[in-house]
């Protein structure tokens, strides 16, 4: 059995993401959990002739969350509120931190072995929140926890190809750091296939990739943030984890925001990012999840400056997530 669970499955991301996961033939059971509407979404998806059996769970059901997560191989979390124009991702912390903490508590209790993919913003803080909850339950395996930053590399491929004329699906741009504004660091000097951009193009592309989310928030004009492109990105990353951990595919490399103490190579990277505990880099996936975290090498001067600007922002967001769980534990929430 390969059970995948989506927490927040009725939302703007949750529904198309669940559709794409239903189309993934590695999945045998798809559990959809939300406050509302999951029975309908599940009944609808269950008519698609792919292997996964789909079941909906509601918060108001008796032990709905427990039943949704129990036995899961992989759990994706897009639960929480999205931005409106004028908001930063950090403005979501107040509400989403509590949502993510309560979902992580259930995972720690009922699915401690699951691979966890966090989409809920602010990712730079919500991933440390999940980790702290798992640590407190004595079940933290950092190789199994990922902040999903795939949308940044998807955008980077699209935006750079518009300038270079390459076919976007063939373009790869490493994007490292975190998932918010200046913490998003595109490494345009490392684009493949190789392309030489002018300084002006590098500056403009960097800004567009860093603030790509704002373009969608503005265009949606109060109706939320990226959902469809995010569903695509989330399904792509979930497929990568399933291929590595279920299907035994070796050598898969995808970016993700992870705990750097997960593996030795992460500790080496940690030394080059001023001791940050979490950072997004290209991750080689293996049977147990994170297998290798790629180092930052040969950055251009411009990229080194971006990194310098990102580090204090990341530190603030990480500390905020850790402090939130500490405070909640003190208050026995
Ligand atoms: N990581 C990324 O790259 C990325 C990209 C886009 C959006 N996001 C984030 O994803 C989150 C969701 O975005 P959306 O557009 O789908 O929002 P949405 O409001 O459309 O959907 C969120 C869903 O979460 C559900 N929910 C709320 N509290 C819950 C709880 N305690 N348990 C289960 N479900 C709960 C809601 O009922 C809703 O169905 C936002 O925080 C957004 O900022 C992240
Ligand atoms: O921009 C947002 O708030 C949503 C998401 O993080 C994105 O990058 O599109």
TrEMBL record:
Residues 149-325 form the Lactate/malate dehydrogenase C-terminal domain. Coiled coil: none annotated. Homodimer. Its EC number is 1.1.1.37. Transmembrane segments: none annotated. Substrate binds at residues 83, 89, 121, 155. Keywords: NAD, Oxidoreductase, Tricarboxylic acid cycle. GO terms for biological process: carboxylic acid metabolic process; tricarboxylic acid cycle. This is malate dehydrogenase. Residues 2-147 form the Lactate/malate dehydrogenase N-terminal domain. It comes from Paraglomus brasilianum. Belongs to the LDH/MDH superfamily. MDH type 1 family. NAD(+) binds at residues 8-14, 34, 96, 119-121, 230. GO terms for molecular function: L-malate dehydrogenase (NAD+) activity. It catalyses: (S)-malate + NAD(+) = oxaloacetate + NADH + H(+). One of its GO terms (cellular component) is cytoplasm. It is an enzyme of class 1 (oxidoreductase). It comes from the Eukaryota. Signal peptide: none annotated. The active site is at residue 179.
């Amino acid at each position: 059995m390969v059970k995948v669970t989506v927490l927040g499955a009725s939302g703007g991301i949750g529904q198309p993401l669940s559709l794409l996961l239903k189309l993934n033939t590695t999945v045998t059971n798809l559990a959809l959990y939300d406050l509302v509407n999951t029975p309908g979404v599940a009944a609808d998806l269950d008519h698609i002739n792919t292997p996964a059996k789909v079941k909906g769970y509601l918060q108001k059901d008796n032990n709905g969350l427990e039943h949704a997560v129990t036995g899961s191989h992989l759990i994706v979390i897009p639960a929480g509120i999205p931005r409106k124009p004028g908001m930063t991702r950090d403005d979501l912390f107040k509400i989403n931190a509590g949502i993510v903490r309560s979902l992580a508590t259930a995972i720690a209790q009922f699915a401690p072995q699951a691979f966890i993919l966090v989409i809920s913003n602010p990712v730079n803080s919500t991933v440390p929140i999940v980790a702290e909850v798992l640590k407190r339950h004595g079940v933290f395996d950092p190789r199994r926890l990922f902040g999903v930053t795939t949308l940044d590399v998807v955008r980077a491929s699209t935006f750079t190809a518009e300038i270079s004329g390459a076919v976007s699906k063939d373009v790869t741009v490493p994007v490292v750091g975190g998932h918010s504004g200046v913490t998003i660091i595109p490494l345009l000097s490392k684009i493949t296939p190789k392309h030489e951009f002018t300084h002006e193009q590098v500056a403009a592309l960097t800004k567009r990739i860093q603030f790509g989310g704002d373009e969608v928030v503005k265009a949606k004009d109060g109706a939320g943030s990226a959902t469809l492109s995010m569903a695509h990105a989330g399904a792509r990353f979930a497929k990568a984890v399933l291929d590595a951990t279920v299907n035994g595919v070796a050598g898969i490399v995808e970016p993700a925001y992870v705990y750097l103490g997960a593996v030795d190579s992460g500790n080496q990277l940690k030394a080059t990012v001023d001791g940050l505990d979490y950072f997004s880099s290209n991750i080689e996936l293996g049977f147990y999840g994170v297998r290798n975290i790629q180092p930052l090498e040969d950055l251009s001067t411009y990229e080194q400056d971006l990194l310098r600007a990102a580090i204090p922002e990341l530190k603030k967001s990480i500390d905020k997530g850790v402090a939130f769980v500490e405070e909640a534990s003190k208050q026995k929430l």
